[in-house]
Amino acid sequence: MIDLYTWITPNGLKTSIALEEFGLLYQAHAIDLTKGEQFSENFRKISAGSKIPAIVDHSNGLTLLESGAILTYLAEKTGRFLPISGAERYAVLEWVFWQVGGLGPTLGHAHYFLTYHPDVAPAASALFASETKRLYEKLEQHLNGKDYLAGDYSIADMSVWPWVSRFERHKINLNNYPSVRRWYLQIAKREAVQRGYRVPVFTGEIPLPPPLTHENSESSEERL
């Protein structure tokens, strides 16, 4: 049994999605960031830095923080969604670290300056709008002609997808990025992704981009 301490953020969602994909038995504990529950004494015993997600694997007593490390650990624990060696393994890890070090922090700032506080700092809003588009362009270029980020479906896709699911918050129209759009919708159809997206609480269905067809019609690829 694994205890998952999490909230409805992209970093939290990628961990719950991964646990569902790996088919591991787990129990989710909601840490409501809007209520400051991450600073509670009990949670700080698990996560000294008051960050989610965190897991406790009761099969070996391991407590682990940081979503990138958690996904790598779960992949190695199960032997799934991460090649065991060679260039294929590092191709997956490259995109995991790209998300952790670049995409996540940039889009987090984009949420803050473009959605929640759009008039606070115009220069910052312009900067993160530009950086967000640059990262989407990189993702679009890489996914052109590819089904997934690094060979087969992997923890790289699990890591990046929840951030892209917030496309509305960083003012991105996925129809402008057709390869990203196709990849996003393909992963959104996975049952494990749909289950993980509802953890620890259901806040709504997976966001969909506007249909590419006429206003009153919906393409089959968008029916989840």
TrEMBL record:
It is an enzyme of class 1 (oxidoreductase). Keywords: Oxidoreductase. Residues 1-82 form the GST N-terminal domain. It comes from the Bacteria. Its EC number is 1.8.4.-. One of its GO terms (molecular function) is oxidoreductase activity. CDD domains: GST_N_Ure2p_like. The keyword Mitochondrion does not apply. The keyword NADP does not apply. Residues 85-210 form the GST C-terminal domain. Belongs to the GST superfamily. This is GST-like protein. It comes from Pseudochrobactrum saccharolyticum. The lineage of its organism: Bacteria, Pseudomonadati, Pseudomonadota, Alphaproteobacteria, Hyphomicrobiales.
